[in-house]
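Handout, section 3.2

Students often ask what a structure token actually looks like in practice. Rather than define it abstractly, here is a full record for Vacuolar-sorting protein SNF7. The first block is the sequence as you would receive it.
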Amino acid sequence: MWSWFGGAAAQARKDAPKNAILKLRQQLDMLQKREKHLENQMAEQDAIARKNVTTNKTAAKAALRRKKLHERTLEQTSAQIAQIEQQIYSIEAANINQETLNAMKNAGSAMKQIHGNLTIDKVDQTMDELREQHALGEEIASAITNAPIGEPLDEADLEEELEGLEQEAMDERMLKTGPTPVGGEVSRLPSVSNAPIKQTTQEEDEEEELKRMQAELAL
């Protein structure tokens, strides 16, 4: 039962600003309507006074008297309206400030609950562990990518096998093309003589000359 009463009291305190603002707005609405009515009454009495100013001064004076009363009441009503508007503004501002403060308190409690037993030392420890695991991961990745698969090859054996292949290719080319003579062997080869060709040409000329002379003697 005490908890119910306590909850009801807390709810009543929470609703108090809203109820106060609601009642003030109702009163403000009534005063604004009265203000409008008084303005209409003043205009009406002013019209009566103007109508009777030359024909019935008593009626005109009575109308001006009523106009003055309405004017005085209107001033009081306008002042009351200003006061109520100020009160509404003050209550709304105070209510907003209270709600803002409550929200900030709730935020502080939430942050405190989230942080819990969290301390700077624990944060530093966690970051150190993360850095260690990151470094370990990089070492593992480097070991995996750089480690050779199988036994390492002997570079000297590879070079020796390559030279053997080059020699076999050279021997195969020499068998296909024959030995290539060197400069000394080429110079010792006998040169082809042009003497028989020249001798044959000379004999033909002599035969031709002999035939020509025989023809001349026959004549």
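Discussion prompt for tutorial groups: The domain at 2-121 is CATH 1.10.287.1060 (Helix Hairpins). How would you have guessed this from the sequence alone?
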